[in-house]
Amino acid sequence: MTRKKVKLAYITNDSARKATFKKRKKGLMKKMSELSTLCGIQTCAIIYCPYDSQPEVWPSAMGVQRAIVRFKKMPEAEQSRKMVNQDIFLRQRISKAEEQLKKQQRENREKEMTQVMYRSLVGDQGLQNLSVVDLKDLGWLVEKNIEEIEEKIKSLQAHQMPPPQVVTVTSSHMISSTHDLEKNDQAAKNTTDTAMDPTVQNQQWLTELLKPNDQNVGFGRNEDMMEPQNHQWLMDLLKSNENVGFGKNEDMLPYGFNGNGLWSSFPFP
Asked: Does the keyword Phosphoprotein apply (predicted)?
C-alpha cells in the first residue's frame, strides 16, 4: 500500500506539528550520518527549534566546531560556490524549467514541420497558406534531411563490399586437362573397337572351347577331350589365320560351332 502524498504546507495543529518535527528531525540526522559514512566527507548539523532551549547539533559539539573552523579557512569564493538562499534556489529552478520548455517547443515544431513536408510531397497540402516563419522552418528542415541523406550515402560508399574476384586458369593447366581427356577418349575407343572385332570374338570362343573339364562341348562322336599337342595346334591356328586358309576379310568359326567338321578336315599329327 502506497503512502499518501504529504501536502507541503504549514501544519496548523500544534500537536501534529510537534510530532512531525520530531520524526523528521530524526530522519535528517540519519541521512547526515549516511552521507558522512558513504561519501567520506565531514558534515555537521545545527537545529534550532521552539520546543528546546538549546540547539541540537550533530554529530557532537566538537565535531560541529571542527567543521565550522575548516569552512571559515576556505576562500570566500569557495565558501559561496554552492551556497544558495531561498531566492537563488527558486531562480535556478525557474531557469532550468524554461530551458526544458524551449527544448520541448523546438522538438514539437520540428515534428509539425515534418508532417507539413510529408503532406506537401504527397499533394495533400499546399505551401501557399504558410507564413514566412513556417516557410523558413520548412526550408531548414528540408536542408537538414538532405544533409542526413548525403551523409548516409557517403557512409554506405565507404563500407561498400569489394567486387568478387575472378579465378583465372592458366593455359598450361588447360592444355594438360585437354591431353588427359584425349587419352581417356582414345582408350575408350580402342576398347570398343576390340570388343566389336569379329576375329577377337571368334578367338574368345575357341579359347573357351579349349578349356579343360568342359562337359558341354563335344569333339566328334564320343571322343575324349583334346590332347596337349592338339591344343597347341589350335593355339597356333588362332595366332595366324593364313595357316588354315582364312582371308583377311573372312570370319573365324561361328559361335556355337560343334567342331565335328573341323576335326575331320584337319587330322591331328
From this structure: no
